[in-house]
Amino acid sequence: MADRPRLRHDLTWKAPPATPLARALCYAAAAFSKGSSNGVGFRHPQPGAGGHPALRHPDPGQAPRRGLRSHAPAIPMRVGTRGSPLALFQTRTFLDRIRAVCPVLRNLDAFEECEIATSGDRAQEKRLAEIGGKGLFAKEIHEALLDGRVDFAVHSLKDLETELPPGIALACTLRREDARDAIVLGAACRRGGFSSPAWDPFSALPPGALVGTASVRRQAQLLHTRPDLRCEVIRGNVQTRLSRVASGEFDATLLALAGLRRLGLEAHADVVLDEEEMVPAACQGIIGVTVREDDVALREMLTAIWDPASKAVSLAERALLRALDGSCRTPIGAHAVLLPEGRLRLTALIARGDGSFLIRRTVEGAAEDAPRIGRELGEELYRETPADVFA
């Protein structure tokens, strides 16, 4: 009988699990621990900034890695991510999912987190619509992926363009977190004794309250219901926005409940808005992973952890955005849910930024037809919407 390879930490090699991802990653882990390629791509960790063994920022001068498309991934694999606390949490959630598929990776330095500053992170004083749209949160990450500086990248799926750049593919999505929005109240609102009964969640906001939001979708729905409110731009990560409300700079803000939960900050959600009260952004609460389009092996492996429910709803929601040619300039909401017996319900909304125009529609169909459902509802909304909304 041939000698079985032995792993570091005295772990005896066992037959890899059945899924393609676990099988390939475990073979790669075995090769990594032996210190030889053994037919599998292999790379020793490179020292990063400050001598830390993990590469925290990709080296722009490093030669791209080519020719590994048909083989198991090289170890360690480089994961591109933004550097915000929420982005890092989401990246580690994805890596934990991979490690759960292949437990042997828990004992190896199998991944390198590569924090990449994006244009959207650097421009904090304006709405994304004014500086180039949601793609600014992914532009530099896409470039690192295409250059071979990272092997795959983790995103908030709502921040990804509906049409990805040539050479980039969406490889998988993880299970959706709660997609609802939440109102965070400042001290002035609480001192005023305002409550939020179930029938009117916006009553927690006093007349004329100043609400900080960078989302034209949230602003449009808020002003449609409460035209007395004032909205001004607030940017920055979740903690920054919370601190600006706490300091009294704004009376309130709206944030995704998913982000608050992932960061352990759900207690700051004073009022949680049902999807019918405020339609969420398309793909809100879903983590998406991108790879190079020609990296067939990695794409096939990541398919093993693609959550079927999030796949179906995101296909519908992104198809709707594509049909509307949706961007950060247009207030659009989309939220799909799976129903019993293989059905899918999609609710969508489009509005003017000042809330003076708003239409909402809901349709149902077979979940396997998710892209068609999204496309047809988007086309219907496009026909019913005044041209100036898209200007």
UniProtKB/TrEMBL annotation:
The keyword Transferase applies. Coiled coil: none annotated. InterPro entries: HemC, Porphobilin_deaminase_cofac_BS, Porphobilin_deaminase_N, Porphobilinogen_deaminase_C, Porphobilinogen_deaminase_C_sf. Residues 314-382 form the Porphobilinogen deaminase C-terminal domain. Residues 37-68 are annotated as: Disordered. Belongs to the HMBS family. This is Porphobilinogen deaminase. The lineage of its organism: Bacteria, Pseudomonadati, Pseudomonadota, Alphaproteobacteria, Acetobacterales. The gene is hemC.
